[in-house]
UniProtKB/TrEMBL annotation:
Keyword Kinase (UniProt): no
Name the record gives this protein: 3'(2'),5'-bisphosphate nucleotidase
Keyword match Cell membrane: no
Catalytic activity field: 3'-phosphoadenylyl sulfate + H2O = adenosine 5'-phosphosulfate + phosphate; adenosine 3',5'-bisphosphate + H2O = AMP + phosphate
Annotated residues for binding of Mg(2+): 77, 144, 147, 313
Family note: Belongs to the inositol monophosphatase superfamily.
Enzyme class: hydrolase
Entry's EC annotation: 3.1.3.7
Function: Converts adenosine 3'-phosphate 5'-phosphosulfate (PAPS) to adenosine 5'-phosphosulfate (APS) and 3'(2')-phosphoadenosine 5'-phosphate (PAP) to AMP.
Keywords: Hydrolase, Magnesium, Metal-binding
Cofactor(s), names only, from the UniProt record: Mg(2+)
Gene3D superfamilies referenced in this protein's UniProt entry, alphabetically: 3.40.190.80, Fructose-1,6-Bisphosphatase, subunit A, domain 1
Amino acid sequence: MEKNKYGKELDVAVKVVQMACSLCKTVQKGLISGSFNQVKSKNDDSPVTVADWSVQATVSWMLCEYFGSESVSIIAEEDVQALSEPDSEGLLGMVVTTVNEALAKAPIYGLNGPGKALMAPQVLEAISRCNSSGGPVGKHWVLDPVDGTLGFVRGDQYAIALALIDDGKVVIGILGCPNYPLEKESLNYHDNGLHKFSSSSTSEVGCVIYTSKGSGEAWMQPLIHGNEGLQGPNCAKLIKVSAIDDPALATFCESVEGANTNHSFTAGLANGVGLRNKPLRVHSMVKYAAIARGDAEIYMKFARGGYKEKIWDHAAGVLIVQEAGGVVTDAGGRPLNFSRGMYLEGLDRGIVACSGVKLHEKIIGAVYASWDSSNL
Ligand SMILES: [Mg+2]
């Protein structure tokens, strides 16, 4: 790939994700303090908040501004249905305010905002235009405005995931991780049955991780705060996967919630492969960030029967892990296919992301050995 083929897209997208991180931090603070207490439930019972819609509107507006509203194709998680219900006026008002507050800060991130505040119909339009169905031809942006909304409402880990697909291939990936500490040393492991982490109070928290396909590099920026503006490329650090290839020393990540994944199957698999460390259970695509940055070595996800993985839950994270030196495939060892619309169609059983080929081969082998005895 030409090195800067997607240079403009990457530049704008990283800045937009920085903006979105700041927006989310503000809303999360409000949620925890009780001033932003509107959490809605979607059809699948997953929560959705002011932040989900506000990030989607903000990112959509910015991408249209920079790449032309006529030609931009965006596939994103949220729609305006719940926002348009008769009892949602207050909620919509909060979204409009939140979006305008975020857009007003655009210059801090080196972006141009709108000349004047957006009205409710413009905000709804920005959200609802993200209804592309993707596919194998052309450029499509893929957005999960808040990945891990449950972690978000709990004050825990969540991510903003933005990727660009060109002719069916993921070509850039950005993960905003507003609560993920910059240094591994500042991750505190709590061993209360779960093996979770939280950040220590002294460390700087929050980062944006990004890459472009074929670069062989993944980068991490700290979050931009207040008026200090963009801090220049010196502030971005190269990240790399872990060099550990001995299963006895490796750590694997999995989802906190069991609803869309199967913890007992991964536990059996981990045992079979000789993993000794307890799993690191993390909300959201921060799991991919953890692999890319060398904080853990393996991420496995095996959905329960019937659950179909959506591309916005994986596109950015998969590319970041790959460019940071890792390997990501389905459980049959095949690459994930992002060219067939909003779902990862044809996915063989689950997703296995590893820091290196040796661990990956062992996991895939173990899947074959233990699959028949499982009840997935
Ligand atoms: Mg989401």
